[in-house]
Every structure is written in structure tokens, then in C-alpha cells.
UniProtKB/TrEMBL annotation:
Listed name of the protein: PDZ domain-containing protein
A GO term for molecular function: endopeptidase activity
Species annotation: Candidatus Wolfebacteria bacterium CG1_02_39_135
CDD domains given in the database record: cpPDZ_CPP-like, Peptidase_S41_CPP
NCBIfam families recorded: prc
UniProt record similarity statement: Belongs to the peptidase S41A family.
Length: 409
């Protein structure tokens, strides 16, 4: 889950409390002072602070390495100071060994903002890591990724000729992104396959869909929510008003392949299905500080029978909404175990257009479970096979209809 800058909360997992930006004369002055007057700076670390000790860090080592690069690196004349500095800041975040805590130079920060605005260039797939392996979290609807047959938890072994074993998620994204009309080849390994397959995908401009809905048999409303981005609350409001006039007997909420989005959006949407004041999720920080988020709104569908579809691509905000309805209303989950993205990131824009995204907390469900530990287990586990995809069958949706009909009075 992610929080985002002044908007504050973002789930998929987004910020930071510190701001770092050195440029121009200020950077040069700092560099000269570091060379002339190396210092041992005393830093209070969390673990050491609890033990009543101080940790001494000699920052002159940084400048020694800097000067060695300048003096001896064979292509030092091709590396500018700003690039070296950004590399150092990236390394600082990389030392956390948390793929969700990263530094974005200005160009990468711009791409990130394009992502959350809902339009960007690429293949249309949310990617992440699972057990140190780069995987597809969810292909987006009506995108090259979906049309190419990519599925949640597909392992990405190579992007073109680049092996992904040592790539971060952000590095892989840079390789996969590209100009509309160009081709990227992903080497994919799927559970059940004997060997990897190369899948050629033509890039396109990706416009992220938000939701679709329709009334199915027995006056059951089917809502497919694709993300929790900034437009989601308003679009859901529009849909909810129209659905309410249909007086549905039940609702199927489809969160399959929904990678998440803004926390505010998740809480807003949860409020349509719960009474005001019920716990949606808790945010737990390292200092034992805890913030509880509760439902608000009119609770229009709080008494309407509902079931939820989830799968391996349901992550972050999707898990918060599904978990909140499961724990508060005993709503049944149908499909496959969810992804398990349950940490909070905050994003802080920096002075020069760069930004930092850092993990600051864990999410805990109303029933006490931690999402990133286990994900969400379905009450009815139903899979989808390659044959189902080819035949355009959806046994998960069929099961949801069956379960919901049994609950409608």
C-alpha cells in the first residue's frame, strides 16, 4: 500500500519524512568542505538508541571514494557530479533491502507520477517481486499485456536480452517501457510450464481503466474495479447511484488483478459497504504508534449481500477493501490467494524534481491479520486454467454467482 505526498495516502503500494537535494554551487561547496574537513558524524540509530549507545559514522570515507572515482575511474570524464550524487542517494535507499523504498531522479519521478495519473507508455502490467523473483502482479484490462496472455505471478526471467535476476522493479520497468509501436520480448515462466517462453509484446499508450459494471441475472450487480487511483471514488459514486436505482438483490465485487492505489480511495469505497465508524485498517509504525482508519459515508450497500472475487493479482488497496468486508461483515472471498502487499510507502517530492519513496508502516486488518505475511485466503478457492482462458470461461465468477444466490433471501 502506498501513501502519496500531500494527498497523503497511497496504497499499492508511496513517501519519506526527509528531503534531500544538493545542486550547483551548494553541492560543490559541500564537496570541498568534505575534502578539506572530513568529519566523524555521530548518528543515533534506532537499535543503538534503545541500548543507550551512539553509533559513529566517518563520512570522510564517502569523500575518499568520491575522489578515487574522480582520480582513477577509466571513464570518469563521462560521469558528471549529479549522476554520482544521485547514485549515492540511490545506494542509501538500496541499503534498506526493501524494493518498495527507492529514490527517483527527476525523470523517474515524472514517470512515477504518470503511472498514478492513469496514463503512460508501455505494455500495461503491474510488476513486482515475490521471493526475490520479478513477477507480473496484474495485467491491466485491454492492454498489450493482457492481449499477450500475461497472468498474475508469471515470472519475468528476461526483458529482451537482459536477465532480471539482479534488477530492481524500477530498473525492469525502465526496460519494459518504451515508445508506442516498438516491441519488447519478455521471457516468461509460469507455474505448470515445463520451460520458459518468449512473449513478444508491442508497446502502446496505456490508459488505466478504473471500473466497469453491469446487472446480471437475478438482478445481481457485478462491479469490476481495476484500481484505486485518484478517479476511483468519483467513478464509483457515479456507478453506485445508477446501481442503487436498480435495487440490486446482491453485488459481486471483482477485485481480481487490481494492484491497488490510494488509501483514501480504498477507505472511501469501503464506506459504501459498511456502517460509519467501523474499522477498515490500522497503520502500525516502528515506534508502536498506530493509526486506525474507519469507514465513513452513507453505507448505501451495507445491508446488500455481497461476495468478492480476488486472485494473485489483488494487492494492497484491494486487500484492504476485501479484508475489511471479510472481517466486518463475514463477506465471502472467492478465487485465489491474494498477492500480500501490506506495507505503507510515503512519497516526498524533493527540491530538484526528484523524490523518495520509503516504507513507513505495516497494515493490519480489523481481525488482526497482517496482509504482507499471508495475503488473503479465499473462502472458496477456485482457479483458472489456460483452457478456461482459451474457452472464455470464468469458473471463479460462476462460483461467485452460486454463492451469492445462496445468500440472497
Amino acid at each position: 500500500m502506498q501513501k502519496i505526498f500531500k494527498n497523503r495516502y497511497f496504497v499499492i503500494g508511496i513517501s519519506i519524512i526527509i528531503a534531500v537535494a544538493l545542486s550547483g554551487g551548494g553541492f560543490y561547496f559541500g564537496y570541498q568542505q568534505g575534502i578539506k574537513k572530513p568529519q566523524t558524524v555521530v548518528i543515533r540509530g534506532v537499535a543503538n538508541l534503545e541500548e543507550g549507545k551512539l553509533e559513529a559514522i566517518d563520512f570522510s570515507l564517502f569523500w575518499d571514494v568520491w575522489q578515487t572515482i574522480k582520480d582513477k575511474y577509466v571513464e570518469a570524464d563521462k560521469i558528471d557530479n549529479q549522476t554520482l550524487f544521485y547514485g549515492a542517494v540511490s545506494g542509501l535507499l538500496g541499503a534498506l533491502k526493501d524494493e518498495n523504498s527507492v529514490f527517483f531522479p527527476p525523470t523517474d519521478a515524472q514517470k512515477f507520477n504518470e503511472d498514478i495519473s492513469g496514463e503512460f507508455g508501455g505494455i500495461g502490467a503491474e510488476i513486482g517481486t515475490r521471493n526475490n523473483q520479478l513477477v507480473i502482479i496484474a495485467p491491466l484490462k485491454n492492454t498489450p499485456a493482457e492481449r499477450a496472455g500475461l497472468r498474475a505471478l508469471d515470472k519475468i526471467l528476461k526483458v529482451d536480452d537482459t536477465v532480471t535476476a539482479n534488477l530492481t522493479t524500477d530498473e525492469a520497468v525502465k526496460l519494459i517501457r518504451g515508445q508506442k509501436g516498438t516491441t519488447v520480448i519478455l521471457t516468461i515462466l509460469r507455474n505448470g510450464w515445463d520451460k520458459p517462453k518468449e512473449i513478444s509484446i508491442i508497446r502502446d499508450t496505456i490508459q488505466v481503466p478504473t471500473l466497469d459494471w453491469e446487472i446480471k441475472e437475478n438482478n445481481i450487480a457485478y462491479i469490476h474495479l481495476y484500481n484505486f487511483y485518484e478517479k476511483a471514488p468519483f467513478l464509483f459514486y457515479q456507478a453506485a447511484v445508477e446501481i442503487a436505482f436498480k435495487n440490486p438483490k446482491g453485488i459481486i465485487l471483482d477485485l481480481r488483478n487490481n494492484p491497488g492505489g490510494f488509501l483514501d480511495a480504498a477507505i472511501n469505497l469501503t464506506g459504501w459497504f459498511l456502517k460509519p465508524g467501523q474499522t477498515v485498517v490500522s497503520e502500525e509504525f516502528r515506534s508502536d504508534k498506530k493509526q486506525v482508519f474507519t469507514s465513513y459515508g452513507n453505507g448505501l450497500f451495507k445491508d446488500v449481500p455481497i461476495v468478492i472475487l480476488i486472485n494473485e493479482g489483488s494487492a494492497s488497496a484491494s486487500e484492504i477493501l476485501a479484508g475489511a468486508l471479510r472481517d466486518n461483515r463475514s463477506v465471502k472471498l472467492i478465487g485465489k490467494k491474494s498477492f500480500g502487499k501490506g506495507t505503507v510507502q510515503e512519497l516526498e517530492p524533493l527540491k530538484d524534481g526528484s523524490s523518495i519513496k520509503i516504507t513507513v508502516a505495516h497494515w493490519r486488518m480489523p481481525g488482526g491479520g497482517l496482509i504482507e505475511k499471508n495475503g488473503l485466503d479465499p473462502d472458496y478457492e477456485v482457479g483458472l486454467t489456460d483452457e478456461d482462458f482459451k474457452a472464455n470461461r470464468d469458473p471463479q465468477l460462476e462460483k461467485a454467482m452460486e454463492v451469492l444466490k445462496s445468500e440472497i433471501k
